[in-house]
Amino acid sequence: MVETRKTKVSVSYVTKQYETAPTKIDKAKSVFFKTNFPMFWAVRGVSFEAYEGETIAVVGTNGSGKSTLMKMVAGIVPPTSGTIDINGETSLIAINAGLRGNISGRQNIRLKGLMMGMTDAEINEKMDDIIAFSELGKFIDQPVKTYSSGMKSKLGFSISVHTNPDILIVDEALSVGDATFNRKSLNKIKDFQKQGKTIFFVSHSLGQVREMADRVLWMHYGELRMFGETKAVMDEYDKFVNEFKGMNAKEQADYRREKRAEQEEFSLDDIYTGELREARKSGREPSDEEATAIYKSVHTKQNVAVWSKFDKFLIVFVILAMLFVADKIALNLGMRNIMQNPTSMITNWAPDKLHELDEKHKGAK
Ligand SMILES: Nc1ncnc2c1ncn2[C@@H]1O[C@H](COP(=O)(O)OP(=O)(O)OP(=O)(O)O)[C@@H](O)[C@H]1O
């Protein structure tokens, strides 16, 4: 059957490789020095298409790559290889997504609105609705770092649904609020379904998945294990979960170790050979042109920054020069102060500016 619906998201052979640096300091070190942490493929050659108006649930055990895949679709994390084509505006709702801890909930609403290209007037018009939906009451003027994860999720959810995206990605944000808020959020998602939006939602609630999803994408240790109609995939997923629960502790640990080893030893050529194997299994020998096209597509590398020694030297030089100029000309702050607290130059500015915009808005009411 020829698919007539509009393709909204097209993902081809996407991977994400991470260095398993144990701490943030180790990660920072690896930017400037040669380090030897093992590499690990969190997503291994995922391909799928999502159409206008459908709701796709993303399931899988902890650490299977669901959030990483969704962050790549939302454009927040770049893939290591492969391509993602988006036909529309995406908005990611995830616990903490894009919220700044040092500024208030209200200032976060303004900041996120500005980042999404809304004008001051548009933000002012929606401000009261967003605050009302979030149910945060007077906490809206408290710094977000004082919020619980449920409160952050309520704020994130409320902001995202009011920015009216046509592709909505909900990453577990439906399960961290209280029962009433979750029901309200589900109803909002159902409204979006009726409006024909494309929705992805990551969920560990299998009942919610069966109730809401048209299709299900099952991630398994970085691979797309199955993608299809909700009932067919969920029946298989349930079967796997029950089989896994039926194993003893040693069998479970062995299984995890084996899969983890596959994630470390994986290479892009595995996707290529897997594709050829699948084609042959279905009785079709790919032509040389087809094989070359698959090879090229699999090996499409994204522009992940690889810094040369000169780049690193330049970065340090530019930072020092900026600090010097800021000290001498613009801010008249002592060099020692800046060295002790470099972020003060930025953090002092942002809340003041957002506060000024809020005051203007209140005055205009
Ligand atoms: N920034 C990162 N650096 C290194 N490893 C990462 C990073 N982000 C995720 N990972 C690793 O990638 C794997 C997939 O993580 P991801 O958060 O996508 O899984 P998930 O399926 O969403 O898990 P959960 O259901 O527990 O939320 C995990 O092993 C995780 O530790």
From TrEMBL:
Span of domain ABC transporter: 26-246
Keywords of the record: ATP-binding, Membrane, Nucleotide-binding, Transmembrane, Transmembrane helix, Transport
Transmembrane regions listed in the UniProt entry: 313-331
The keyword Transit peptide belongs to this UniProt entry's keyword annotation: no
Claim: ATP-binding is one of the keywords in the record: yes
A Gene Ontology molecular function term of the record: ATP binding
UniProt xrefs under CDD domains: ABC_KpsT_Wzt
Xref: PROSITE patterns: ABC_TRANSPORTER_1, ABC_TRANSPORTER_2
UniProt xrefs under InterPro entries: AAA+_ATPase, ABC_transporter-like_ATP-bd, ABC_transporter-like_CS, ABC_transpr_TagH-like, Bact_Polysacc_Export_ATP-bd, P-loop_NTPase
UniProt record similarity statement: Belongs to the ABC transporter superfamily.
PANTHER family associated with the record: TEICHOIC ACIDS EXPORT ATP-BINDING PROTEIN TAGH
The protein's name: ABC transporter ATP-binding protein
